[in-house]
Amino acid sequence: MKTTDLIGLYSKHPNVLRMRDFFAQSEDKTLHLNGLTGSSATLVLAALSHDQRQSRLIILAEREEAAYFHNDLAHLLGEEHVFFFPSSYKRAIRMQQLDQDNLLLRTEVLNKLATRNAKPLIVTYP
Description:
- Helices cover 48% and strands 10% of the residues.
- It has helices at 3-11, 14-25, 40-49, 63-77, 100-114; strands at residues 56-59, 82-85, 121-124.
- It starts with a helix and ends with a strand.
- It is mainly alpha-helical.
- The longest helix has 15 residues, at 63-77.
- A three-stranded parallel β-sheet has the order 1-3-2.
- Strand 2, helix 5 (100-114) and strand 3 form a beta-alpha-beta unit.
């Protein structure tokens, strides 16, 4: 089974259709997904985003979870649509030490947002 087939199956699920209607009512919506295991949350988001290109901000609890989610989503939808927005700093303990690689990733996201008609999916963490 191809990833597009799997996304297609999720796209037809009644709950995904309800979420799609929820987002269609207004552009400023917040949705919390609970009770999903493994990569099912990624598949739900891929199903929501596959045919509807809208900017979305996905906030996960911690860096590692966000990195895995970003990787799964980029594999499903393509790296040109999915971006990772990490902290500017190397570690939470050493807030003074900037991470140059993370700064480049953040700049890439900001440049994409500044591009007209860009509808990126941005994955981050608090």
